[in-house]
What we know:
- The chain is an all-alpha fold.
- It has helices at residues 3-27, 40-45, 54-62, 66-72, 74-95, 106-124.
- α1 (3-27) packs antiparallel against α5 (74-95).
Amino acid sequence: MNVHARAAAVPAAVLAVVVAAFGYVAAVDPNEPGHYPACPLLRVTGLYCPGCGGLRSAHALAHGDLAAALTDNVLAAVGFLAFAVLWTVWVVRSLTGRPVRVELGAAPLWTGGALLLLFTVARNLPFGGLLHP
């Protein structure tokens, strides 16, 4: 196995898993009841978790409907885009022999956590109807 094939093996495996997952969600519509389990937090409390609508967002994105993907769960749709960008950087760096390092300090992690919390709180407030799945 040559160096480039070996460097691309792990990113290719990750991509295969993600494509399989998106393929399944594209084929099995989460908008139809009974295909996927309900969110336990929503079922018990009636509150939307940050992931509520994520499967519907993935389904819409797999069918090329970006507007519906953003409506179903804007955070998930942005996360899918971030994954695609990071995966591409990973492949390019692996193939060029440069190290792949993700060094996040405390500030970006706290900021991400705060944004996740704000998103969760805002989508559960009366004025957060646009963020409901």
